[in-house]
Structures are given as C-alpha cells and as structure tokens.
Amino acid sequence: MPSRTPTPTGGPNAAPRTAPDSAALVARLGGDVAAWDLEVTSAVALTPTMRRIRCTAPGLADLSYRPGQDLMLAVPADGASFRRRYSIRAFDPAVPSVDIDVVLHGDGPAAAWAASVQPGDRIEAIGPRGKVTVDGDADWHLFAGDDSAVPASLAMAESLPDPDRALVVLEVDGPDDHQQAYTADGREIVVRWLHRAGADPASATNLVAALETIDLPGGHGHAYLAGELGVVAAMRAALLGRGLTPEQISAKPYWRAGKANAAHGEPERE
Predict the structure, then answer these.
(1) In CATH, what number is assigned to the domain containing residue 186?
(2) Which of 73, 102, 129 lies at the terminal end of a domain, its last residue?
(3) Sheet of 249-255, strands arranged across
(4) Domain that holds residue 216
(5) 113-144, pLDDT tens digit by residue?
C-alpha cells in the first residue's frame, strides 16, 4: 500500500502558487487519500487541445477511486512546484495505470508541463480527491461543461449501468475536439457537442442556451456541472430556473478566467 504519512482543473495563465507540503495535505485530507510517486508511461495527443498522460506507480493497484474524482499534481515550474487538480479519466488496476487528460490551454506552466512531459518523467500526486461522483439514486444524469469538464463527464457517464440515462452536453472549440466514449460493455456515450468557434471560453452563452432547452426526462435526475467559475454559476442558475433543486445539482468550478488557481489547485472565489 502507498504511504499515507510524510512519504507521500486551473486558470490558464498566471503566476504559479507554491505547492503546499504533501505530508501535511495527506494527513489533513485523511481517508483513502495518499501520495503517489507517478511515472509517466505514455503521453499522446487526443485532440489538438487535449493530451492524455498515462502514469503508473508502486502500489497504484490499491487506489480507491470513484469516477469523477481527481489527482492533485505537484506541477513543476522554474525549480519549484504548485498544485493543480486533474480528473482521473481512467483507472486500470491490472496494469496498474491512471490516465489524466489535460487541456492544453494558454501558455502557463501547467499547460507547458502537460505539452512537454515524456515517458519516464515523474511527478508527485495526491489523491483521489473530489466529492462530485455519480449519484446512484438518480433516474437520469446530466453532465455539462467546457473542455475542462470533458474527462470527468465522460468518465462518470461511462460508469453508468444504463448510458441511455445520461445527457451529456460539452462545449469545445470545434469538431476536431470531439472525443468518443464507451461503457465497459462497448456501448457508445452520446454527446451533444457545442462549438465556440474561437469565441471566449469563459462565455456561458452556448451552455446556458442548451440547458434551457434540453428535454429533461421524468423522474429524479442529477446534474453535474464543471468548467469556468462564472459559467458554472450561470449553468446552475439555468437549471434551478427549470425546477431542479440545489440538492440535484453538483457544481464544480475548475478554473476562473484571468485568475490563477489557489495553492490547493482550485479557483479562488471573491
């Protein structure tokens, strides 16, 4: 098992924050959280804007993970490091390996690391983290967000026993950024792709319009919203306006336009 003691999704462009001490973080978070000495085994382009980084580590087969959760990486920058959280796109305990899909937005240190990382490189990770996972009591599931929401949304949708009960609405720049996703038994996840076509990724216009008009099934549903902080707030308001209760909505901002994420890897709020 990995050590749980002192052995061990952010804004695009801004000065990095120094990474908090890993031992203190693991001790504070507790539970199944552990520190991992990850080794990159492959790094490939999925789309023009997203790269898949596959990693392994001693004891990784013991990772207790639920789709939707993430790993907090100590991203290197100018001789230091800072924390950024990335969703676990896939986990294979037989290898063992984890896949982390990273959006290559902007020219900040996190994007630079993701674009240049090669097999054999190592990086410290802490996790799994995150409370937004599939609601097993829901009759249907709605996943919505921007590019940064793609990995977690597809991972959660793939984990559903009935993918036909999933509504997936994701905004990317264009058709070249589409991805396919399948359940374990080979059924394809149907995704409604929205295209920005070069527009501001921090604009909520497309996603809000889609959520205001999408046909919602009967029964008790649950929505999972992720992406830029202001966009997530606007999507949440749109769904509340359609009659969903706050308890039916899991909203997770991954980044904030024009602001670096805080040292713990999440966007700061006013």
Answers:
(1) 3.40.50.80
(2) 129
(3) 191-195, 166-172, 140-145, 221-228, 249-255
(4) 140-255
(5) 999 999 999 999 999 999 999 999 999 999 99
Question: Which residues, at least 6 apart from 152, have a Cβ–Cβ distance to it below 8 Å?
Answer: 67, 68, 70, 87, 132, 224, 226
From first CA to last CA, the distance across the chain in angstroms is: 39
Question: Using one digit for the tens of pLDDT, what is the confidence trace for 12-23?
Answer: 333 334 445 777
Cα dihedral across residues 131, 152, 7, 56: positive or negative:
positive
Dist CA 265 CA 110 (whole Å): 11
Position with higher pLDDT, 259 vs 64: 64
Residue 4 covered by a domain: no
Residues 193 and 54: their CA atoms lie apart, in Å, by 25
Number of C-beta neighbours around residue 96 at 10 A: 16
The verdict on 105 and 146 lying in the same domain is no
pTM: 0.88
Find out whether 144 and 235 touch, Cβ atoms under 8 Å: yes
